[in-house]
Specification:
heterodimer; A: mainly alpha; MetI-like fold; 75% helix; B: mainly alpha; two-stranded antiparallel sheet
Chain lengths: 284, 310
């Protein structure tokens, strides 16, 4: 009896040991970035072994914000993320509603075509043709191109989440509204959309994460227009430039500026993050 | 008037139906146009340009010459594909068992479970590009903190130049990728574990089954279908890795750590001083898409036992 209890206690110790080690490895890179962003460039370039700065300086943030254009990058990122989030909420809920409740010819065929796009694994390899098509419309050198492509090209995961959510709303509600004279569009505006609030929170957060973190597409759309670069592209641009070695302080403070808002949003809304991502994966 | 939709009765209802379906089409139309323009048209574009030689200004039809070049003369392409495969299977060999282990440990409702779950998921919300940048700074050769720490505890004498050889560079990239992605897989496994009926374990306990047997005979078969999908997503996602390579090694040293997506990407955009070859890049994109589809298909075939395990 006693030995089994001992065994249980030592098992628990082992488990917490494993969890603690993983915890340290998980949190270290974030901690390192935060601490590094407060080091002077001198200290960054000479003393890598020390993690906590010998003296906390805020100059890196000042320099990044004022001299290295991070103020502009941050506002570009906010602009990009805001319009992609709002646009995606509209297009995802409309598409989910139309494919779930709508009746028109070839509906299933069109739905099938949208879904099957998921199986073509080209990923970033379609960026070039997308840029060329955007060029034909004159939207290839601004963030509007990215916004339009992201909002209009249907995200299959979002479509699945929305469609299955709308399926749980009773059709009788629609029908009684129809009897009262509501049109198909009217039902979406005044009945379905307000009922989707919890789903909209999830969609907003997932889309925000995606838009805020996106790198390749905004990069190719701002290649010739550095003024419009979002944060991630701006930071990566520092690394690619010849002055990479002398701009560690900017890269670290820039990374902090890019990562901290995301972490705060995550810590506040972590339930929506986790629910949204798992719902998408199970249904998709 | 006879209507095909015979569940619709009176003519006023037919009018309603028609009006509603017109509205439905109008609502979805902008998205369908966007979808065909930015999802399907690019595929058509690539299919066409694969048979052309093009630098973005002048196009010449050259038949299947681009494909002959991929298969016979471009060793670097196949090396980048091999790197993608090595990186994918190397990092998943760590990431998937780690995610599963953590999910099992956190499933029992021990103290602090919520806290660990939230922290382990945290790297997932960070951009892959930024994650790569942070890791490349941490593993920097002269002033990187990893070398600094290893030196100060006496594990190494001189700083290691992590990005000077293919092996150690791929190790750092794989490490960064595991860090960035293990949380999401852990959450998927955790979801699956929570749906396993508790009485199965109670029966097993009565029969005196030990924890290891319990894991392999009950847990693993019960979460088989989830495991199959999670692993497929992880394989395809890792093979398509691009941001992380661009932000860490960018293919250095001498193109030895290039993966297939970045290799083809650079031909499209002439990134890094390479000449723009849209036709050739398109041909490589098609070959890559076909190879990825074959890998997924083969995986589904081989893993069917997992998916049907209960």
């Amino acid at each position: 009896m006693r030995s089994s209890k001992m065994k249980k206690i030592s098992g628990n110790i082992l488990i917490y040991l494993v969890l603690t080690v993983v915890f340290i490895v998980t949190i270290f890179p974030v901690f390192y970035t935060l601490m590094g962003s407060f080091k002077s460039n001198m200290e960054l370039l000479t003393n890598g072994g020390r993690i906590i700065p010998s003296e906390f300086v805020f100059d890196n943030y000042k320099e990044a914000w004022k001299l290295a254009n991070f103020k502009q990058y941050t506002s570009n990122s906010l602009f990009l993320a805001f319009f992609i989030v709002v646009g995606t909420i509209i297009t995802s809920t409309v598409a989910g509603y139309v494919f779930e409740r709508g009746n028109f010819r070839y509906k299933n065929l069109i739905f099938g075509m949208v879904v099957s796009s998921m199986f073509v694994s080209l990923g970033s390899l379609t960026l070039y043709p997308q840029l060329m098509i955007a060029k034909a419309f004159g939207i290839n050198t601004s963030l509007w191109g990215v916004i339009i492509i992201r909002v209009l090209s249907m995200n299959v995961t979002n479509l699945f989440i929305t469609r299955s959510y709308i399926r749980t709303i009773s059709v009788e509600i629609d029908e009684s509204a129809k009897v009262d004279g509501c049109s198909f569009f009217r039902i979406y505006i005044s009945i379905i959309f307000p009922l989707l609030k919890p789903l909209i929170a999830t969609l907003a957060i997932l889309t925000f994460r995606f838009a805020w973190n996106d790198y390749l597409m905004p990069m190719v759309f701002t290649l010739s227009n550095p003024e419009r670069m979002p944060l991630v592209v701006g930071i990566m641009n520092l690394k690619g430039s010849g002055a990479a070695a002398s701009s560690w302080n900017l890269m670290l403070s820039g990374s902090s500026i890019a990562v901290i808002p995301m972490i705060i949003v995550y810590l506040i809304f972590n339930r929506y993050f986790i629910e949204g991502l798992t719902a998408g994966a199970v249904k998709g | 008037m006879k209507n095909k939709n015979n569940y619709i009765g009176s003519s006023s209802q037919i009018k309603w139906y028609k009006k509603d379906s017109t509205q439905a089409i109008l609502m979805i139309a902008p998205m369908l146009i966007g979808f065909f323009l930015f999802t399907y048209a690019p595929i058509v574009y690539i299919l066409r340009y694969a048979f052309y030689e093009s630098n973005g200004f002048k196009d010449t039809f050259i038949g299947i010459e681009n494909f002959i070049r991929v298969f016979t003369r471009d060793l670097a392409y196949w090396r980048s594909l091999k790197n993608a495969l090595v990186l994918t299977f190397g990092k998943l060999a760590v990431e998937i068992p780690l995610a599963l282990l953590l999910a099992v440990l956190l499933n029992k409702g021990r103290k602090g479970t919520g806290f660990f779950r939230i922290t382990f998921f945290l790297p997932t919300v960070i951009s892959a590009a930024i994650a790569g940048l942070i890791f490349s700074l941490m593993f920097g050769s002269f002033n990187g903190t990893v070398n600094g720490v290893l030196q100060s505890i006496g594990l190494i004498e001189r700083p290691i130049n992590w990005f000077s050889s293919r092996g150690s560079a791929l190790f750092v990239v794989g490490f960064a990728s595991v860090w960035n992605n293990f949380g999401i897989n852990m959450i998927f496994f955790l979801m699956a574990l929570q749906s396993v009926p508790k009485d199965l374990y109670e029966c097993a306990d009565l029969d005196g089954v030990n924890p290891i047997q319990r894991f392999f005979k009950i847990t693993l078969p019960m979460i088989g279908p989830t495991f199959q999908v999670v692993l497929l997503n992880a394989i395809v996602g890792s093979l398509k890795m691009a941001d992380l390579i661009l932000s860490t090694t960018n293919g250095q040293p001498a193109g030895k750590t290039e993966v297939v997506m970045t290799y083809v990407f650079k031909y499209f955009f002439g990134y890094d001083g390479r000449a723009i070859e849209i036709g050739y890049a398109s041909a490589m994109a098609i070959v890559t898409a076909v190879i990825l589809a074959l890998i997924s298909g083969l995986y589904m075939k081989l893993s069917n036992k997992l998916g049907n395990s209960y």
